[in-house]
Amino acid sequence: MKKKRLLFLLSRFLDGGIxxxxxxxxxxxxxxxxxxxxxxxxxxxxxxxxxxxxxxxxKVVHIIGERFLVRSRQRKLSRKxxxxxxxxxxxxxxxIRRRLxxxxxxxLVSSHDAIVDFDSTFYSLIRDHGKPVVGFYHFSIAExxxxxxxxxxxxxxxxxxxxxxVVVSDTMLEEGRRLFPSLQEKFVRIYNGYDFEDIERRxxxxxxxxLPSRYFISVARLEESQKDNETLIKAYAEFxxxxxxxxxxSLVLVGKGRDKEMLSGLVEELGLQDSVILTGFIENPYPxxxxxxxxxxxxxxxxxxxxxxxxxxxxxxxxxxxxxxGPAEILENGKSGxxxxxxxxxxxxxxxxxxxxxxxxxxxxxxxxxxxxxxFSIQRSVNELMEVLS
Length: 390
Known about the structure:
- It is globular and about 65 Å long.
- Strands 3-2-1-4-5-6-7 form a 7-stranded parallel sheet.
- Strand 1, helix 1 (17-27) and strand 2 (34-42) form a beta-alpha-beta unit.
- Helices cover 42% and strands 16% of the residues.
- It is an alpha/beta fold.
C-alpha cells in the first residue's frame, strides 16, 4: 500500500509548548502508513533545541534558511533590535522572505497529500491544491480578540480556507463557534497528547544540577505578555513572609525569555536572591519537576497549558491560574489540582502555603493528578487528527 504523504508546517521551531506538542505528534505517527515532512518556515539555527528529539523517520525542511534572511529574526529572540534593523527587516527583508516562502511552500504542498499548519501562520500563502489542509489554533480565541481584534479576525478569515480548524480545549471550541459562526462546522477539538512512557523515562534521569531539598517549580517562558511570572514571584515573597513551615521551600523557575532581566530585578528587589533560582532553559526539565513539591503555572492566558499535564503525568501536584483557557478544563475546575484567580497574589500565596505544610493534601493531589493525566494520551490525539485529515 502506498504511504500517504503528510506535511506539517511550523513558522519557527523553538522550545515552547507548541513545539513540544508537535514533537509528540511527529514521534507517534504510524510510519508504516505515512511519510512525514516537517516544513519550518524560518530557520532558527542552534535555537532549534528539540530537533534531536524528532524521529529520524521525519524529513525536516527549512523553507527559509539563508543567513541574510534569518539573521534579524534569530537576533530578535534574545534582544531588542535597533530601530533601523527592525524597520529594514520588516520591510525590505520581509518582502523577499515572503516571496521565497510562497514559492517554496507551493512546491512542498504540491508534493504532499495532506497538510497540517500547526501554528496557523501559513493561511495567506497556501494555494488551493484540492487537498485537506488543517490549521491548529493554540490560544484562547476570545483573549486574542480582546488583545488584537484586527489580527485575530484577519487570521480567522484566512483560516476559513482550511478544511478544519483544530483547537486544543472545549472552551476554545465554544469560543470559536460562538465568535465566528460562519466557521462553526470547521472547528474541532483535539487535546494535546503526551507519551507518558517517555516522560516517565526522562523523569528518572539525573537532574544535571544541584537542587534545593524542597522547592516549587515553574517551567515557562520568561515573557510577561502571556505568562505571569511576576505574580508568582510576588506570591512566593508573600508566602515566605507568613509561612510557619519549618523548612521553607525554594522557588525554581525554568525557562528563558526577553523579560528575564526584569524578573531578576524583581527577585533582587524583594530580597529573594537566596531562595529563587532562575535556571534558564533546560531541555529535559522532567527530573526537576518530579522532585518538586508542586508545579505552578502562572499565566495571563493559555490555550491549553501543556506543562500542567506533564507534571500530572509525573504524579506531581499542580497549581494554575484560572485563566482563559485550558487550566480549569485540565484540572476539572479544581478537582484535579488547585486553581487561583489570574493575577491574585494572595490566593496563590495561600496555595503555596497549603502545599508546603499539608502533606496529606499533597499526597491526595499527587494521586488525582496521575489519574487525570491518562485522559491526554498522544495515541488518542494522533488517531483523532488522522480521522480529521481523512
